[in-house]
Amino acid sequence: MPLQISDRVRALAAQAQAEVREQFDRIDAIAEENSLKVLSAFQKHRVAEGYFAGTTGYGYDDLGRDKLEEIYADIFGTEDALVRIGFVNGTHAIACALFGALKPGDVLVSAVGAPYDTLLGVIGVVDKGPGSLKSYGVEYRQVEFLDNAPDPEGLARAVRDPRVKAVLIQRSKGYSTRASLSVAEIGALCRVVRANNPQAAILVDNCYGEFVETTEPTQAGADLVVGSLIKNPGGGLAPTGGYIAGRKDLIEAAAARLTVPGIGKECGSTLGNNRLLYQGLFLAPHTVAQAVKTAIFAARMMEQLGYRTEPTSSQVRHDIIQMIHFGAPDPLKRFCKGIQFGAPVDSYVTPEPWDMPGYDCPVIMAAGAFIQGASIELSCDAPMREPYTAYLQGGLTYESGKAGVLLAVEELLRAER
C-alpha cells in the first residue's frame, strides 16, 4: 500500500523543495570536496581487501584496525586516532578522552555552557553513580553563553587558573536551544584558550558535526575531536563504536582508559566489522549531505506551517540537527509519531515518552533504524519539557528522509481536520 500523503502536503513539499534548491547545491559541493578527501586518504594508505578481515580474542596485529586509525588521523589532520567498536557510544569515547587528559586536582572547563545530558553524570554535575570525574577529585566549571553566543572574555578568565588542564567544547547544541558552533567559531575559542593557558588540552565533542563542513575542529586548533561511529562518520553502516583523533599523547592516555595502562591500543579485536567501518567512512560525506538536506527540507516545511525552527531553512549548517519548537506536548508527540511512520524498521510502533537512562525528564524518541540508536538514520527525539522542542536528525537518503518529514506533517495536519 503506498504511503498516504495528501495533495496539500505534496504541494507544500514541492514549494519547500524549490525554495531550498540553492542550499542543496551548496551542500552537494561540500559533499564532493569531503568525498575527495576521504578517497585520497584511502588511496594514500593503500587500502586493500585484506584489511577487511577481522580479529578475535586479544586482537593483536589487526592490520585493518590500525590502518583505519591512520586514515582517520589523516582525514582529521591529527597525529593519531583511536577508532574502536569497544566504545559503546559517543559519551563513552568522550569520557575516555576526559579521563585520559585529567588527573585528581585538575580543573575541567566547559567553554559553552552545560554539555549534553549524558555527560553530566560523567563529570559529576549530577549523581549517576560511582566513577565520575568529580569522585576522582576533578573540579568542574562552565562558561555560559552570552546572548546566544560563546563568551570569549569569560572563557579567558576561566582558563587562566593553572589548574585548568582540559577545556571541553561541544560543537552541537545537544538538548539546549543554543546555536551549534561552526569550525571557525571553535577555532576562535581555541585561540582564546591558547593565549591564556597554553598547557590546557582542548577537546571537542564533534558528534553530529563531522563532514558538515570541509574542515574539522582539529584543523582549527583543537587537540582532540571525539565522536560516535553510529552518527556521521559511520555512514549508516558502522554497527557500533566511536573515535578519538588528535594529539598522540592524549590518544595514548584515552586508549589506556578504554583498555588498561600497558595495553592501550595494542588490543581490541574487530570481530569482522572492519569492512563496515571502512565502507561507512567512505560513504559518510555523501550520507551526511543527505541528512543535512533532510534537515533543511524539514525546516522549510515546518516554517510554511508557522512553526519556529532553529536553524532556519536559509541558514548555513554546522551539524545535522534540526530544532522545531512546538510549544506544547501534543503536536510534538504527533510529529514524532509521523516520523516513526516513515521509518523502514518498526514503522508500526507508536513512540511514547519514557524515562531514558542519563536524562532528567521523560524523553520521546522516534527511530526505526537498521542500527539501534543510529542518529545518522532519520530520527526525532525530544525531552518532554518546555519549550517542547523536537530535535530531528539523520536520513540515510534524502528521498527517505523527505518521506518521513511528509508523514510527520500529515500527522500534524490530521489533528486539524
UniProtKB/TrEMBL annotation:
It comes from Candidatus Flavonifractor intestinipullorum. Coiled coil: none annotated. Gene3D superfamilies: Methioning gamme-lyase, C-terminal domain, Type I PLP-dependent aspartate aminotransferase-like (Major domain). InterPro entries: Met_g_lyase_put, PyrdxlP-dep_Trfase, PyrdxlP-dep_Trfase_major. This is Methionine gamma-lyase family protein.
